[in-house]
Amino acid sequence: MPAISQIIKSKIPLIPAVTWGFLILYLTLRPKSDGDVVSLPTWLVGLPIDKLAHFGFWGIWYGLFHVFYLNNWRGFQRAPKQSVKSSNNRKYQVYGIITMILIGGLVEIFQYHLQWGREAEWADLAADAAGVLTAALFYKRF
């Protein structure tokens, strides 16, 4: 049975991804205020900025999970690839993807039921999933 300190040490690489996840939850679940409305430059008017933000935030979230946890990041020096069992790594990769997409779905459900001025949209969930899956494909490739 591993000691508590070993368990904690093995989960430290999750801190960036967990912190980013809490930032996403804060930004998507807090009550909407007048300061949330941003005037865009004319060349950006008409673009789905909200969906691009969802795509980007969820993609960055998966990227942090992949770089710091799946690749065993140690400061500026990554651990050699041989130290990570690929089958175990694949399992955690799938768990991470599913967890992030499910959290995106829960955010939309909470937005719908909390009635804090946020709008629940299936397109937001699709953008979340697209961001996670695009990042996963990117990191699988490189």
Overview of this protein structure:
The chain has one domain. It is mainly alpha-helical and about 140 residues long. The protein has a two-stranded antiparallel ribbon with strand order 1-2. Helix content is about 65%, strand content about 5%.
Low-confidence runs: none
Helix content: 55-70%
- Total strands: the figure is 2
Shape: globular
Instruction: Give the radius of gyration.
Output: 17 Å
Strand order of the largest sheet: 1-2
Q: Averaging pLDDT over every residue, what do you get?
A: 83
End-to-end separation in angstroms reads 35 Å
Question: How do the helices and strands line up, and which of them pair or pack?
Answer:
Blueprint: H1 4-11, H2 15-29, H3 49-70, E1 73-74, E2 77-78, H4 86-114, H5 122-141
Antiparallel strand pairs: 1-2
